[in-house]
Amino acid sequence: MGHARLKRQREFPGASHFIDRHGKRRWRYREKGFTAQLGTDYGSDEFVRRYEAALRCEKVKGGVGQDRTRPGTINALVLAFYETVEWRQMADYTKKTRRYILEALRRDHGEKRVSLFKRRHVMEIMADKSETPAAGQRMLQMLRRLMDLAVLLEIRPDNPTLGVKMPKSKNPEGFHTWSEEEIDIFNKAYPPGTTAHTAMTLRIWTGAAVGDACQMGWHNVKDGKIEYRRRKTRNSVDILIVIPIQPPLQAVLDLIPKEQKTFLLNNRGVQYPAATLGQGMARWCDAAGLTHCTSHGLRKACARRLADALASPHEIQAVTGHTNLAMVSHYTRAADRTSLASSGMAKVLAQSERGIEGG
User: Fold this and answer.
1) CA terminus-to-terminus distance, the chain
2) Residues 6 or more apart from 185 whose CB is under 8 A from it?
3) Taking phi first (over 0 means left), then psi (-120 to 50 degrees means alpha), and beta for anything else, what does residue 310 get?
4) Domains of the chain (ranges, CATH numbers)
5) Residue 230 Cα distances to 210, 216, 278, 303, angstroms
6) Which residues of 299-316 are buried (b: 16+ CB within 10 A; e: fewer)?
7) What is the pLDDT of residues 89-127, one digit of tens each?
8) What is the pTM of this model?
9) How far apart are CA 190 and CA 350, in angstroms?
10) DSSP symbols for 20-54
């Protein structure tokens, strides 16, 4: 019994159960004066949805279980999507980000009937996202998947999202790539030994995605290298990544006890969930005055550093774990173009001079 309770605490920190006046076991989340009800079905999609809302200090209003959902509505379609193989094969972190979008859709349009959903409704939703095109892109992607499912389930004959153009991003570069100056500012704000500094150093010297970084520990260190398997989705092929530990990272790791299970622990002393670490990085950045920096930007900064050092695309790919060079190119757009241009033109000059001498 004690082992099961400990497992639950690690899986959903802050969640605890109680017996209501009818003798039924219920779950709730408590953190620093905030309380939210999680329901009776521990670990269900509904439980997880309420738990993730509670982490954002939000409460889910009313009962939204499947028994209270009208068939043929957006609500019912989203619940059906949660039962698909596609959903079940998504990595946990991917599920969290997708669920946030889907639950926003349910909140605003859940009672609308899928069969009556028109292209103009899709365009209206996109218009509401005009100031946040990146969010609009993610919403349209999820709407397309939902409507594909509706066609498959014969709820409607067509997909009304087809023909609706994807919103153009205000920033084609995507997430901001940290500069060296920003990295220095962050490290001055959070000295060695702090979780923030450890998280920064681990990410910047491995290029690991936040979900992979959360799981890293001494079990990943072998012969002066960090070895881990990058896997974006549960059914994707694992990619073995082996990265030599450089002195700045080694100095930080030396401060971590060998018996500590993972390098990054939250204030409860347990492994960070990926979403929580991302939120923590956002708070640390804001407090340091780096309001435009994000957790994902650290991964891009690692790739940018490699490009600045004139590492080849394949060398960068070996560190970041990308499966195609096109994504490597996307990640390294913030490389020092001035230095790279100078290097490139020097090569042209050298080639030209060799041609003159040969002639």
Assistant:
1) 85
2) 288, 289, 290
3) left
4) 2-152 (no CATH), 180-341 (1.10.443.10)
5) 11, 11, 18, 16
6) bbbbbbbbbbeebeeeeb
7) 887 767 878 888 898 888 888 888 999 989 999 988 888
8) 0.54
9) 45
10) -TTS-EEEEEEETTEEEEEESSTTSHHHHHHHHHH
